[in-house]
Amino acid sequence: MAVVMAVVSLVTAGGAAGAVRVEGWGWVGGAEKTVDAPGDLTKLRREAEKASKGLAEATKALERRQATLVKADKELKGKLAELQKANVELSKLRKPLADLVQSLYQAPSGGDLAPLFSGQEEGSLRALSDMTYLVSGRDEVLEDAGRLYQEQQKLAAQAQDLRANKLLVEAQLSMEIDTLRKRSASVVKTLTRTLVKLGVKVNAGGRTGAACDPTQVNAADEFPNGLLPVDVLCPLQQRGEQLRADAAIAFVALNEAYRKQFGRPMCVTDSYRSLGEQQAVFYRRPGFAAVPGRSNHGLGLAVDLCGGVDRFRSPQFNWLEANGKRFGWIHPEWAYSSPFEPWHWEYDPKLGSLL
Predict the structure, then answer these.
(1) pLDDT under 50 in the chain at which residues?
(2) Is 223 in contact with 255 (CB distance < 8 Å)?
(3) Do 263 and 335 sit in the same domain of this protein?
(4) Is residue 199 within 8 Å of residue 246, measured between CB atoms?
(5) Is 265 in the same domain as 233?
(6) Taking the CB of residue 261, how many other CB atoms lie within 10 A of it?
(7) What percent of the chain shows pLDDT beyond 70?
(8) Are residues 175 and 193 in the same domain?
(9) Range(s) of the domain holding residue 268
(10) Cβ neighbours, 10 Å, residue 94
(11) Same domain, 170 and 240
(12) How many CB atoms are closer than 10 A to CB 63?
Protein backbone atom coordinates (compact mmCIF):
# COMPACT_ATOMS: atom_id res chain seq x y z
CA MET A 1 0.00 0.00 0.00
CA ALA A 2 2.86 2.38 0.89
CA VAL A 3 4.48 1.75 -2.48
CA VAL A 4 1.19 2.33 -4.31
CA MET A 5 0.70 5.64 -2.50
CA ALA A 6 4.26 6.64 -3.33
CA VAL A 7 3.66 5.98 -7.02
CA VAL A 8 0.33 7.84 -6.98
CA SER A 9 1.79 10.84 -5.15
CA LEU A 10 4.75 10.85 -7.53
CA VAL A 11 2.44 11.23 -10.49
CA THR A 12 -0.54 13.21 -9.24
CA ALA A 13 0.64 15.46 -6.41
CA GLY A 14 0.51 19.24 -6.84
CA GLY A 15 2.98 21.31 -8.81
CA ALA A 16 3.44 22.81 -12.24
CA ALA A 17 1.33 21.39 -15.02
CA GLY A 18 2.90 18.28 -16.43
CA ALA A 19 5.56 18.22 -13.73
CA VAL A 20 6.67 15.25 -11.66
CA ARG A 21 8.12 15.48 -8.20
CA VAL A 22 11.41 13.61 -7.75
CA GLU A 23 13.17 13.34 -4.39
CA GLY A 24 16.00 15.84 -4.17
CA TRP A 25 14.79 17.63 -7.31
CA GLY A 26 11.37 19.13 -6.64
CA TRP A 27 9.04 19.58 -9.58
CA VAL A 28 10.52 18.71 -12.95
CA GLY A 29 9.23 18.06 -16.42
CA GLY A 30 6.85 21.05 -16.52
CA ALA A 31 7.03 24.21 -18.59
CA GLU A 32 10.58 25.08 -19.63
CA LYS A 33 12.20 28.04 -17.91
CA THR A 34 13.43 31.12 -19.76
CA VAL A 35 17.21 31.20 -19.61
CA ASP A 36 19.45 34.27 -19.60
CA ALA A 37 22.27 33.07 -21.82
CA PRO A 38 25.54 34.24 -20.19
CA GLY A 39 24.62 34.18 -16.53
CA ASP A 40 22.93 30.78 -16.51
CA LEU A 41 25.63 28.66 -18.14
CA THR A 42 27.09 27.57 -14.80
CA LYS A 43 23.62 26.97 -13.39
CA LEU A 44 22.61 24.88 -16.41
CA ARG A 45 25.80 22.85 -16.24
CA ARG A 46 25.21 22.20 -12.56
CA GLU A 47 21.59 21.16 -13.16
CA ALA A 48 22.60 18.85 -16.00
CA GLU A 49 25.27 17.22 -13.83
CA LYS A 50 22.81 16.91 -10.94
CA ALA A 51 20.22 15.24 -13.17
CA SER A 52 22.87 12.88 -14.54
CA LYS A 53 23.99 11.97 -11.03
CA GLY A 54 20.40 11.42 -9.91
CA LEU A 55 19.79 9.25 -12.97
CA ALA A 56 22.83 7.10 -12.19
CA GLU A 57 21.81 6.73 -8.53
CA ALA A 58 18.20 5.84 -9.41
CA THR A 59 19.39 3.28 -11.95
CA LYS A 60 21.69 1.68 -9.39
CA ALA A 61 18.86 1.67 -6.83
CA LEU A 62 16.62 -0.12 -9.32
CA GLU A 63 19.32 -2.69 -10.03
CA ARG A 64 19.91 -3.26 -6.30
CA ARG A 65 16.17 -3.56 -5.67
CA GLN A 66 15.74 -6.02 -8.51
CA ALA A 67 18.66 -8.14 -7.27
CA THR A 68 17.27 -8.18 -3.71
CA LEU A 69 13.76 -9.10 -4.82
CA VAL A 70 14.99 -11.81 -7.18
CA LYS A 71 17.02 -13.35 -4.36
CA ALA A 72 14.07 -13.24 -1.94
CA ASP A 73 11.75 -14.64 -4.59
CA LYS A 74 14.13 -17.56 -5.17
CA GLU A 75 14.31 -18.24 -1.43
CA LEU A 76 10.53 -18.37 -1.15
CA LYS A 77 10.24 -20.62 -4.15
CA GLY A 78 12.83 -22.87 -2.55
CA LYS A 79 10.79 -23.04 0.64
CA LEU A 80 7.66 -23.88 -1.29
CA ALA A 81 9.51 -26.66 -3.11
CA GLU A 82 10.81 -28.03 0.21
CA LEU A 83 7.31 -27.99 1.70
CA GLN A 84 5.93 -29.77 -1.33
CA LYS A 85 8.61 -32.40 -1.04
CA ALA A 86 7.97 -32.81 2.69
CA ASN A 87 4.27 -33.16 2.02
CA VAL A 88 4.92 -35.93 -0.48
CA GLU A 89 7.24 -37.74 1.93
CA LEU A 90 4.70 -37.47 4.74
CA SER A 91 2.01 -38.88 2.50
CA LYS A 92 4.24 -41.84 1.67
CA LEU A 93 4.98 -42.40 5.33
CA ARG A 94 1.33 -42.24 6.40
CA LYS A 95 -0.19 -43.96 3.40
CA PRO A 96 -0.19 -47.54 4.83
CA LEU A 97 -2.04 -46.38 7.94
CA ALA A 98 -4.50 -44.30 5.96
CA ASP A 99 -5.15 -47.16 3.53
CA LEU A 100 -5.78 -49.59 6.42
CA VAL A 101 -8.27 -47.30 8.08
CA GLN A 102 -10.04 -46.76 4.78
CA SER A 103 -10.26 -50.52 4.09
CA LEU A 104 -11.64 -51.19 7.56
CA TYR A 105 -14.40 -48.66 7.06
CA GLN A 106 -15.21 -50.21 3.73
CA ALA A 107 -15.19 -53.87 5.04
CA PRO A 108 -15.73 -53.74 8.83
CA SER A 109 -16.74 -57.38 9.08
CA GLY A 110 -13.36 -58.79 8.09
CA GLY A 111 -9.75 -58.52 9.03
CA ASP A 112 -8.27 -58.09 12.44
CA LEU A 113 -11.31 -56.16 13.66
CA ALA A 114 -13.79 -59.03 13.10
CA PRO A 115 -14.02 -59.78 16.87
CA LEU A 116 -15.38 -56.26 17.38
CA PHE A 117 -18.41 -57.15 15.31
CA SER A 118 -18.75 -60.84 16.40
CA GLY A 119 -19.53 -60.10 20.07
CA GLN A 120 -16.38 -61.70 21.53
CA GLU A 121 -15.64 -59.59 24.60
CA GLU A 122 -11.87 -60.02 24.91
CA GLY A 123 -11.33 -59.78 21.20
CA SER A 124 -13.75 -56.87 21.02
CA LEU A 125 -11.76 -54.83 23.56
CA ARG A 126 -8.49 -55.47 21.74
CA ALA A 127 -10.07 -54.71 18.38
CA LEU A 128 -11.64 -51.54 19.78
CA SER A 129 -8.24 -50.45 21.04
CA ASP A 130 -6.74 -51.08 17.61
CA MET A 131 -9.56 -49.16 15.99
CA THR A 132 -9.01 -46.21 18.33
CA TYR A 133 -5.29 -46.23 17.50
CA LEU A 134 -5.95 -46.36 13.79
CA VAL A 135 -8.52 -43.58 13.89
CA SER A 136 -6.09 -41.47 15.97
CA GLY A 137 -3.35 -42.14 13.44
CA ARG A 138 -5.60 -41.12 10.62
CA ASP A 139 -6.53 -37.92 12.42
CA GLU A 140 -2.84 -37.12 12.84
CA VAL A 141 -2.33 -37.64 9.13
CA LEU A 142 -5.19 -35.27 8.35
CA GLU A 143 -3.97 -32.73 10.92
CA ASP A 144 -0.39 -32.78 9.61
CA ALA A 145 -1.61 -32.51 6.05
CA GLY A 146 -3.87 -29.60 6.96
CA ARG A 147 -1.06 -27.80 8.78
CA LEU A 148 1.34 -28.27 5.89
CA TYR A 149 -1.30 -27.10 3.43
CA GLN A 150 -1.96 -23.92 5.45
CA GLU A 151 1.74 -23.19 5.73
CA GLN A 152 2.18 -23.76 2.05
CA GLN A 153 -0.69 -21.43 1.26
CA LYS A 154 0.76 -18.79 3.56
CA LEU A 155 4.14 -18.93 1.85
CA ALA A 156 2.50 -18.92 -1.56
CA ALA A 157 0.63 -15.74 -0.57
CA GLN A 158 3.88 -14.18 0.64
CA ALA A 159 5.52 -15.03 -2.66
CA GLN A 160 2.62 -13.42 -4.52
CA ASP A 161 2.85 -10.27 -2.38
CA LEU A 162 6.58 -10.16 -3.01
CA ARG A 163 6.08 -10.35 -6.76
CA ALA A 164 3.39 -7.65 -6.66
CA ASN A 165 5.61 -5.40 -4.52
CA LYS A 166 8.50 -5.99 -6.92
CA LEU A 167 6.41 -4.84 -9.87
CA LEU A 168 5.20 -1.73 -8.04
CA VAL A 169 8.68 -0.75 -6.85
CA GLU A 170 10.14 -1.32 -10.29
CA ALA A 171 7.37 0.83 -11.78
CA GLN A 172 8.13 3.62 -9.30
CA LEU A 173 11.87 3.54 -9.88
CA SER A 174 11.42 3.26 -13.64
CA MET A 175 9.20 6.34 -13.55
CA GLU A 176 11.83 8.26 -11.59
CA ILE A 177 14.55 7.15 -14.01
CA ASP A 178 12.46 8.19 -17.01
CA THR A 179 11.71 11.57 -15.40
CA LEU A 180 15.37 12.21 -14.63
CA ARG A 181 16.41 11.13 -18.11
CA LYS A 182 13.95 13.56 -19.67
CA ARG A 183 15.02 16.29 -17.26
CA SER A 184 18.68 15.75 -18.07
CA ALA A 185 17.98 15.78 -21.81
CA SER A 186 15.91 18.96 -21.46
CA VAL A 187 18.62 20.79 -19.50
CA VAL A 188 21.36 19.70 -21.92
CA LYS A 189 19.19 20.84 -24.85
CA THR A 190 18.68 24.25 -23.25
CA LEU A 191 22.38 24.47 -22.45
CA THR A 192 23.30 23.61 -26.05
CA ARG A 193 20.93 26.27 -27.42
CA THR A 194 22.49 28.82 -25.07
CA LEU A 195 25.99 27.95 -26.27
CA VAL A 196 24.87 28.30 -29.88
CA LYS A 197 23.38 31.74 -29.14
CA LEU A 198 26.75 32.78 -27.75
CA GLY A 199 28.53 31.77 -30.94
CA VAL A 200 29.71 28.26 -30.09
CA LYS A 201 29.45 26.04 -33.16
CA VAL A 202 28.47 22.93 -31.24
CA ASN A 203 28.13 20.69 -34.28
CA ALA A 204 31.23 21.92 -36.11
CA GLY A 205 33.87 19.50 -37.35
CA GLY A 206 31.65 16.42 -37.40
CA ARG A 207 30.73 16.74 -33.73
CA THR A 208 27.39 15.88 -32.20
CA GLY A 209 25.72 17.78 -29.38
CA ALA A 210 27.19 15.25 -26.95
CA ALA A 211 30.59 16.94 -27.32
CA CYS A 212 29.28 19.87 -25.25
CA ASP A 213 27.24 17.72 -22.85
CA PRO A 214 28.75 18.14 -19.36
CA THR A 215 27.21 14.84 -18.24
CA GLN A 216 29.42 13.00 -20.73
CA VAL A 217 32.82 14.29 -19.54
CA ASN A 218 33.69 10.87 -18.10
CA ALA A 219 33.95 9.65 -21.68
CA ALA A 220 37.12 11.74 -22.02
CA ASP A 221 38.73 9.76 -19.19
CA GLU A 222 38.66 6.66 -21.35
CA PHE A 223 41.31 8.11 -23.67
CA PRO A 224 45.02 8.83 -23.07
CA ASN A 225 46.35 12.36 -22.67
CA GLY A 226 46.53 14.03 -26.09
CA LEU A 227 44.46 11.36 -27.83
CA LEU A 228 40.96 12.65 -27.10
CA PRO A 229 38.60 12.24 -30.10
CA VAL A 230 36.76 15.22 -31.48
CA ASP A 231 33.38 13.99 -30.19
CA VAL A 232 34.44 14.53 -26.55
CA LEU A 233 35.81 18.05 -27.18
CA CYS A 234 33.52 21.08 -27.19
CA PRO A 235 34.50 24.03 -29.44
CA LEU A 236 35.01 27.49 -27.96
CA GLN A 237 33.84 30.80 -29.38
CA GLN A 238 37.44 31.36 -30.46
CA ARG A 239 37.81 29.68 -33.84
CA GLY A 240 39.79 26.44 -33.89
CA GLU A 241 39.94 26.12 -30.07
CA GLN A 242 38.32 23.35 -28.05
CA LEU A 243 38.19 21.92 -24.52
CA ARG A 244 36.52 19.17 -22.54
CA ALA A 245 32.80 19.94 -22.16
CA ASP A 246 32.77 21.12 -18.53
CA ALA A 247 35.89 23.24 -19.05
CA ALA A 248 34.51 24.66 -22.30
CA ILE A 249 31.17 25.65 -20.77
CA ALA A 250 32.94 27.32 -17.84
CA PHE A 251 35.32 29.11 -20.22
CA VAL A 252 32.44 30.45 -22.34
CA ALA A 253 30.79 31.82 -19.20
CA LEU A 254 34.12 33.36 -18.11
CA ASN A 255 34.62 34.77 -21.60
CA GLU A 256 31.23 36.52 -21.46
CA ALA A 257 32.09 38.10 -18.10
CA TYR A 258 35.46 39.18 -19.52
CA ARG A 259 33.73 40.67 -22.58
CA LYS A 260 31.46 42.76 -20.34
CA GLN A 261 34.49 44.02 -18.43
CA PHE A 262 36.85 44.81 -21.29
CA GLY A 263 34.53 45.12 -24.29
CA ARG A 264 36.09 42.24 -26.20
CA PRO A 265 36.40 38.44 -25.82
CA MET A 266 39.45 36.75 -24.41
CA CYS A 267 42.33 36.07 -26.75
CA VAL A 268 43.27 32.37 -26.92
CA THR A 269 46.49 31.11 -28.49
CA ASP A 270 46.17 27.48 -27.42
CA SER A 271 43.67 25.11 -25.79
CA TYR A 272 43.51 21.34 -26.30
CA ARG A 273 46.76 19.90 -27.66
CA SER A 274 47.04 16.52 -29.30
CA LEU A 275 50.01 14.34 -28.41
CA GLY A 276 51.77 15.37 -31.63
CA GLU A 277 51.24 19.06 -30.84
CA GLN A 278 52.57 18.54 -27.32
CA GLN A 279 55.73 16.99 -28.73
CA ALA A 280 56.19 19.87 -31.15
CA VAL A 281 55.80 22.49 -28.40
CA PHE A 282 58.06 20.55 -26.04
CA TYR A 283 60.95 20.52 -28.52
CA ARG A 284 60.29 24.06 -29.73
CA ARG A 285 60.11 25.60 -26.26
CA PRO A 286 62.17 23.45 -23.90
CA GLY A 287 61.47 24.21 -20.25
CA PHE A 288 58.17 25.92 -21.08
CA ALA A 289 56.04 22.87 -21.85
CA ALA A 290 55.12 19.73 -19.96
CA VAL A 291 56.47 16.36 -20.99
CA PRO A 292 54.28 15.07 -23.84
CA GLY A 293 51.46 12.99 -22.46
CA ARG A 294 51.44 14.83 -19.11
CA SER A 295 50.09 18.23 -20.08
CA ASN A 296 46.71 19.52 -18.94
CA HIS A 297 46.36 20.78 -22.49
CA GLY A 298 46.20 17.12 -23.52
CA LEU A 299 43.23 16.62 -21.19
CA GLY A 300 41.33 19.57 -22.63
CA LEU A 301 41.58 21.43 -19.32
CA ALA A 302 44.03 24.27 -20.07
CA VAL A 303 44.34 27.37 -22.24
CA ASP A 304 47.12 29.81 -23.11
CA LEU A 305 45.84 33.38 -23.31
CA CYS A 306 46.95 36.60 -24.95
CA GLY A 307 45.44 40.07 -25.32
CA GLY A 308 46.91 41.39 -22.07
CA VAL A 309 46.39 38.40 -19.82
CA ASP A 310 49.82 37.18 -20.89
CA ARG A 311 51.42 40.23 -19.22
CA PHE A 312 51.87 39.66 -15.50
CA ARG A 313 49.94 42.15 -13.34
CA SER A 314 48.22 43.76 -16.28
CA PRO A 315 44.57 44.80 -15.69
CA GLN A 316 43.46 41.77 -17.69
CA PHE A 317 45.65 39.39 -15.68
CA ASN A 318 44.55 40.87 -12.36
CA TRP A 319 40.88 40.70 -13.32
CA LEU A 320 41.19 37.08 -14.39
CA GLU A 321 43.10 36.20 -11.24
CA ALA A 322 40.35 37.78 -9.11
CA ASN A 323 37.37 36.38 -11.04
CA GLY A 324 38.49 33.16 -12.69
CA LYS A 325 37.75 30.97 -9.66
CA ARG A 326 34.09 31.96 -9.84
CA PHE A 327 34.03 29.92 -13.06
CA GLY A 328 36.40 27.14 -12.01
CA TRP A 329 39.46 28.61 -13.76
CA ILE A 330 42.74 29.17 -11.91
CA HIS A 331 46.29 30.29 -12.53
CA PRO A 332 48.27 27.36 -11.07
CA GLU A 333 50.91 28.05 -8.43
CA TRP A 334 53.77 26.72 -10.52
CA ALA A 335 52.93 29.16 -13.34
CA TYR A 336 53.85 32.12 -11.09
CA SER A 337 57.49 31.09 -11.02
CA SER A 338 58.57 27.69 -12.36
CA PRO A 339 58.28 28.18 -15.22
CA PHE A 340 56.83 31.68 -15.25
CA GLU A 341 53.77 31.51 -17.51
CA PRO A 342 51.22 34.28 -16.85
CA TRP A 343 49.38 33.21 -20.01
CA HIS A 344 48.67 29.65 -18.79
CA TRP A 345 45.31 29.00 -17.08
CA GLU A 346 43.67 25.74 -16.07
CA TYR A 347 40.18 24.51 -15.30
CA ASP A 348 39.87 22.71 -11.96
CA PRO A 349 37.00 20.16 -12.18
CA LYS A 350 36.81 19.86 -8.39
CA LEU A 351 36.47 23.61 -7.99
CA GLY A 352 34.01 23.75 -10.88
CA SER A 353 31.81 21.06 -9.32
CA LEU A 354 31.38 23.21 -6.21
CA LEU A 355 30.09 26.23 -8.12
Answers:
(1) 1-35, 37, 110, 116-117
(2) no
(3) yes
(4) no
(5) yes
(6) 13
(7) 73
(8) yes
(9) 207-353
(10) 17
(11) no
(12) 11
